[in-house]
C-alpha cells in the first residue's frame, strides 16, 4: 500500500459520474469533428469543463449530467449565476491570445442515457 498525497482526496460518486459525463461528451464532440484544446480549465472566476476547437472557432462546453430529467433536466440546471461564471472563466482563458478567435458556448446535457448537444446555448 502506497502513501497518499496529503492533498489528494477520495473522489465522490458525483465527481466520478461528472467525469464519466465529460468523457462521454468529449468522445461525442470528437466524433463530430471537434478537437480538444483543454479539459477542466480552472481559474478564480470558475471552471470550463471542455474547451474544443471547431474549425476556426473556440468552443467553451459546459457538460451537465443528470440521472433523470425531473426538475427540468440537465440543461435547465445551468443558472444565470453559472452562466456568468462560465463567461468570466472564458474571458480569463482568452487572455492568452493576442487576437482571440471567434468563440461560442455550447452545452452537452446528459439526462439518463440521452445526450443533447446545444450549440450557442449561452448568450455572451
From TrEMBL:
Q: Name one GO molecular function term.
A: nucleic acid binding
Gene3D superfamilies (alphabetical): 3.40.1350.10
Q: Superkingdom, according to UniProt? A: Bacteria
Q: Which HAMAP family match?
A: UPF0102
Q: Which family does it belong to?
A: Belongs to the UPF0102 family.
Q: Under which name does UniProt file this protein?
A: UPF0102 protein D3871_02455
Give the classification, highest ranks.
Bacteria, Pseudomonadati, Pseudomonadota, Betaproteobacteria, Burkholderiales
Amino acid at each position: 500500500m502506497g502513501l497518499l498525497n496529503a492533498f489528494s482526496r477520495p473522489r465522490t460518486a458525483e465527481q466520478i459520474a461528472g467525469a464519466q459525463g465529460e468523457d462521454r461528451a468529449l468522445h461525442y464532440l470528437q466524433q463530430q469533428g471537434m478537437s480538444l484544446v483543454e479539459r477542466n480549465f480552472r481559474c478564480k472566476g470558475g471552471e470550463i469543463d471542455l474547451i474544443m476547437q471547431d474549425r476556426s472557432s473556440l468552443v467553451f462546453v459546459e457538460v451537465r449530467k443528470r440521472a433523470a430529467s425531473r426538475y427540468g433536466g440537465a440543461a435547465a440546471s445551468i443558472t444565470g449565476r453559472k452562466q456568468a461564471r462560465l463567461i468570466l472563466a472564458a474571458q480569463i482563458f482568452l487572455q492568452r491570445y493576442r487576437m482571440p478567435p471567434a468563440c461560442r458556448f455550447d452545452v452537452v446535457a446528459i439526462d439518463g442515457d440521452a445526450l443533447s448537444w446545444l450549440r450557442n446555448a449561452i448568450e455572451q
